[in-house]
Write a structure and sequence with these properties.
The protein has helices at 35-55, 61-70, 73-88, 92-113, 118-127, 129-134, 140-155, 162-192, 207-219, 234-243, 247-257, 269-286, 292-297, 305-337, 347-362, 366-369, 375-390, 485-502, 518-529, 535-541, 553-562, 567-584, 596-606, 623-626, 637-654, 661-672, 680-688, 695-700, and strands at 195-197, 228-230, 393-396, 408-415, 423-434, 444-449, 467-474. By secondary structure, the protein is of the alpha+beta class. α1 (35-55) runs antiparallel to α2 (61-70), α1 (35-55) packs parallel to α4 (92-113) and α22 (567-584) crosses α23 (596-606). The longest helix has 33 residues, at 305-337. The protein is globular, with a radius of gyration of 25 Å.
């Protein structure tokens, strides 16, 4: 076996973390100045590891692919912290580091694939994979590793000539720089824009929203007793648009919210996005494709843009019909009241009047439910569901300090298979729930350490135990933080991703956890959402935050009756994003006068965007598309996965018990633990015994 290098410096990111609980990062010792030298040292060690593989005279699996999977352990360790900081604690000092490191890290990634002799080693493994499997010398997981590594090298341009390789690398560097700037511009808009109003101006808003707006004012340094702040955080602005009776203020908040990334001439994200589109098109051309959408979907379950568009356009037609019916209901409601709305129902009106109709037609008021959905209650619910399905227990560790005081740290444990009376450590879980300055918007799961069994010789086994982080952006209340049902769904969604990391049971880190094809990765997360809708879960955990009273049956019945109302709106605002994403990345040319804003207007008119609705993410703040390439030509994956998750949940329902142990074990094995060790379509078939059925998805959307 060939040896790899190790490095240790007097920097907390480079030193051993063995003295830390569970080998967690030494958060209290880390500052932004540590990252660049640590990353530079880690990159150097990573290249040395890869060069050792390329020059290794042993050509067995462990010396090549096993070593490749272990290579860059220091780099993975440092990048795990770095990636989380630039998302969750991206202070101005961190942003300087991020801007400086973006092109350097991109060059490093390109270099990793172009070390002389390395691709030849991977090709030799790829070429013998079937022979070795037939001899019984390689496992199916080893064959899969050979295939996925080979595919990654090819898709990174290793077969290009030297001139093309240089151009490809230059493109990746420029993309990294532009994408970093795109995200930082959004963050700056969200940090700086605010609407300062009085208590009187919050007419119609429920008590918890008023409290959250007051807390936001305090957090932003507004000391006046009658000052309240609406920020561009979704958990503040969406409720304001839903409840505020002040149409002028709704419009002001909505206009700013949908203009993130273009609120300042100094932060022109449309120009940045256009440059990104041109670079991606050239990247695709180098790889033999006419458009970026062809290149991007090639390595997915969908396989090509046509299959994506077929699904999305089918849903689009149904969603438009549903949204038109919803608008008609709102217009009828206004007519019955004798109200006239200048210009008709506008985008800043939709949520407000939808809520009015929901209350009038279904006798359901979201603010009536929120007191039963405190953050503590919903967290307890998701932990309990996790335990009932997969046997996971969450032990809070108040003694362990993370990177921010609001972050909770848990040991995740379960009973040992061979000794049920004893338990074992499965993962460390960090829960970061609140919106704050210098934190990206949205919600996401990430990892500081990924599960693996392929450790460096002599490593502590704890290094194979994952450290998983869930980030949300709930508006922090001055007392209890109350969640909307959508917020609760988001918390469950991210725990689904968390399960994907915590329950991973793979030999090789390269295939572990969420390292799956993009249109499979949202299945584990969206599947988890279904349990929050179950009365058995809500009756056990939805307790009034003041009285402890269990949520009334009548309220749950009204929640269910109203659940599909406004589904047309929600599906339209999402599907429009998925369609525009695929359309704009399917262009074969971007002329000098290409205008992304005009393209948005013309394309939405072409597909018949319903009046009164805009895209959930407009181009200038569409971070999924332009803050990285990960979801570019890939925003459809949420809808693709909805077909899968509704079908999988139906398997639980068919047993008559949504916690059926046998189904849960099969789900753990096929959906959550397998990572990318098996092709996703085969994992689904192993669970369900057949191909996916769209009928469950359409039925649950009310669009069958």
């Amino acid at each position: 076996m060939c040896k790899t290098t190790a490095i240790s410096e007097g920097n907390p990111l480079l030193q051993s973390w063995a003295a830390q609980p569970f080998h967690l990062p030494p958060f209290e010792e880390i500052n932004p100045g540590h990252f660049q030298p640590a990353l530079e040292a880690a990159m150097e060690a990573h290249i040395a590891d890869l060069e050792a593989i390329a020059s290794c005279t042993d050509n067995d699996f462990d010396s090549i692919l096993g070593a490749y999977d272990r290579a860059g352990s220091l780099y993975s360790k440092v990048c795990g912290v770095y990636g989380n900081y630039i998302s969750s604690l991206n202070t101005p000092d961190m942003q300087e580091v991020q801007s400086a490191m973006a092109p350097i890290l991109s060059r490093h990634r390109s270099k990793c694939y172009n070390i002389p002799g390395l691709f030849e080693k991977m090709t030799s493994m790829y070429d013998i994979r079937e022979e070795m499997a037939n001899k019984g010398e390689w496992t199916a997981e080893q064959v899969r590793l050979a295939e996925r590594v080979y595919t990654a090298f090819v898709r990174m341009g290793v077969k290009l000539n030297e001139e093309e390789k240089k151009e490809y690398g230059d493109i990746q560097v420029e993309l990294a720089t532009l994408q970093t700037k795109f995200m930082q511009n959004i963050l700056k808009d969200e940090e700086t824009w605010e609407m300062v109003i009085t208590a009187e101006s919050m007419a119609g808003c429920p008590e918890d929203l008023v409290a959250a707006a007051r807390q936001a004012a305090v957090d932003r340094g507004h000391e006046g007793a009658d000052e309240y702040v609406i920020t561009l955080g979704r958990s503040l602005v969406e409720p304001f648009l839903t409840y505020s009776t002040r149409r002028d203020l709704r419009k002001k908040a909505f206009d700013a919210w949908t203009s993130r990334g273009e609120l300042s001439e100094e932060r022109d994200n449309l120009a940045i996005a256009t440059k990104i589109l041109r670079l991606r098109k050239r990247q695709a051309n180098l790889m033999g494709h006419t458009t970026f959408s062809e290149y991007q979907t090639e390595d997915t379950m969908a396989q090509n843009p046509e299959n994506v568009m077929n699904l999305c356009m089918d849903v689009w037609k149904r969603a438009k019909e549903a949204a038109d019916k919803e608008r008609a209901m709102m217009e009828s409601f206004l007519s019955e009241k004798g109200d006239e709305l200048e210009g008709g129902i506008q985008p800043w009106d939709w949520r407000f009047y939808a809520e009015q109709v929901r209350q009038a037609n279904f006798n359901f008021d979201e603010s009536e439910l929120k007191p039963y959905l405190s953050l503590d209650a919903v967290t307890n619910a998701v932990f309990d569901v996790s335990n009932k399905l997969y046997g996971l227990k969450y032990v809070k560790r108040d003694d362990i300090k993370a990177y921010h005081k609001d972050v909770n740290v848990y040991e995740v444990r379960r009973a040992k298979k061979d000794s049920p009376d004893e338990d074992e450590l499965v993962a460390i879980f960090l829960h970061d729930n609140f919106s704050r300055a210098h934190k990206s918007s949205g919600a996401w799961m990430s990892e500081y350490r990924t599960q693996t069994k392929n450790l460096i010789e002599g490593a502590d086994p704890i290094e194979g135990v994952p450290i998983v982080s869930n980030n949300n952006n709930f508006a922090k209340g001055s007392g209890a933080t109350l969640l909307s049902f959508d917020d609760g769904t988001t918390l469950f969604h991210e725990m689904g991703h968390g399960h994907h990391g915590m329950l991973s049971d793979c030999t090789y880190e390269y295939l572990a956890s969420t390292s799956v094809l993009k249109d499979f990765v949202e299945l584990p997360s969206q599947l988890m959402e279904h349990w929050l809708e179950e009365p058995v879960v809500l009756k056990e955990h939805a307790k009034h935050y003041k009285t402890g009273e269990t949520v009334p049956d009548d309220l749950l019945a009204r929640l269910k009756a109203a659940s599909l109302f406004n589904e047309g709106f929600a599906t339209v605002e999402y599907t429009a994003c998925a369609l525009l994403d695929m359309a704009v990345h399917s262009l074969s040319e971007y002329d000098d006068d290409f205008d992304l804003s005009e393209f948005e207007k013309k394309y939405l008119a072409e597909i018949g965007m319903p009046q009164g609705i805009v895209m959930r993410h407009r181009p200038a703040h569409f971070a999924h598309l332009f803050a990285s390439s990960s979801y570019a030509s890939g925003y459809y994956v949420y809808q693709w996965a909805q077909v899968l998750d509704n079908d999988v949940f139906a398997a639980f329902q068919e047993t008559g018990d949504v916690f059926d142990a046998e189904t849960a074990e099969r789900c753990r094995r096929c959906i959550y633990s397998a990572g990318n060790t098996v092709a996703p379509q085969d994992l689904f078939k192993a669970f369900r015994g057949r191909e996916p059925d769209t009928s469950f998805f359409l039925k649950n959307k009310g669009m069958a």
